[in-house]
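ingest -> validate -> predict -> emit
validate: passed (alphabet ok, no gaps, 438 aa)
predict: started
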Amino acid sequence: MPADLLNHLSARLNSVIPEGSSICVGLSGGMDSVVLLHLLSQLASRHGWRLSAVHVHHGISPNADDWADFCAALCARQAIPLHIERVDISPLRQHGIEAAARKLRHAAFARQPADLIALAHHADDQAETLLLQLLRGAGIKGVAAMPLFKPASATMCATVRPLLDIARADLLAYAQQYDLTWIEDESNADASYPRNFLRHQVLPLLEQRFPAYRQTLARSAGHFAEASALLDELAAEDASADELTVSSLRARSQPRAKNLLRHYLHSHGAPMPQSVQLANMLRQLIEAQPNAAVCVEFGDGWQVQRYQDRVLLLRDLGAFDPALVLPWQGETELEWPALQCRVAVRPAVGAGISQAKLQRAPVTLRLRSGGESLRPHPNAAKRSLKNLLQERGVPPWRRERLPLLYCGDELVSVVGVAVAAEFQAEEGEAALEFILLD
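emit:
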């Protein structure tokens, strides 16, 4: 394989990476990433790719500075631009060193000005990952194969893993053939880490009895990936709209309802709850009485709540200042910390708030203090804000945080809910619309 590795990689990537693409190599300085950098540096001119590298300096090891210096010297010799990202792992240590480091690496990769990040995961990594996920009791998505190419998502840029079908031994043979040098992370020998335990003590025994275990485990991971894709398609069919309803969960079998709930959480960027948490979440959503307040906390500051027939996914917004008052002086956008969102102001004609009437007095955004009322239509009676928000289906947790627009001491609008009849623009009149950007 070492002699053919360059051509193998060229054929593998030719249909995946367009000519002229900018590729940033995730360079740790270890053997795997050094080999990947060496291979891509030879292929870059052949395919018209622009190559760079990024080294994430975690600061965990006392040798971290030396590793960064090694990567800088390596890239300098090959005239490859290198960016060193220094990250602080201490705030995330409660999640475990490996998980925290991975999260910070992904964030660092996402900041790179490149079309895609090239990572040096290989066939041994694929096998180790599958076994680790199985031992952790992961679901179908967790044990699915790492793909050759993964499109960009909300939290990660597009990635390519060109070495996934190459064994570590073949990469080592290539590195020795070309006299490449690399650094050794001393933590790789620490068997207290689950991955190292598998790598050094379990997999060598497995290879004696099942020498083709890398290929067979990769094949199984591929089957899991296909099953995961099918479950996603089923959930997409079950999800009739962007929102999730309790009735749609009740109408399905428990496995299918779990799949739909799992898909909803994943598609909105939430972490996946453990199996017990997910089952408890589903049970509370579908079994609680209609007027019961359901709030299930999970992950790091995430909540699932039920309001009427809707399932609501929320981030913990934290405390807010009930005395908050923000003056509006013509800005097109204002930060609204109570909801951790922005209020946008857009010009309109004949709809929204009359610009002329807003000239009467200073305009401010405030929070509810109690006892407010508003007439939502010219022919309607004044309604208490409490009743109006209930009628408009505003969830209870949101009612105290909504911005109220005032002109002097007159309530003009509950932003995103209603405009007082006295301030509504007439046909053809210059107007403004205040909009919540969640």
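The first strand starts at residue 22 and ends at 26.
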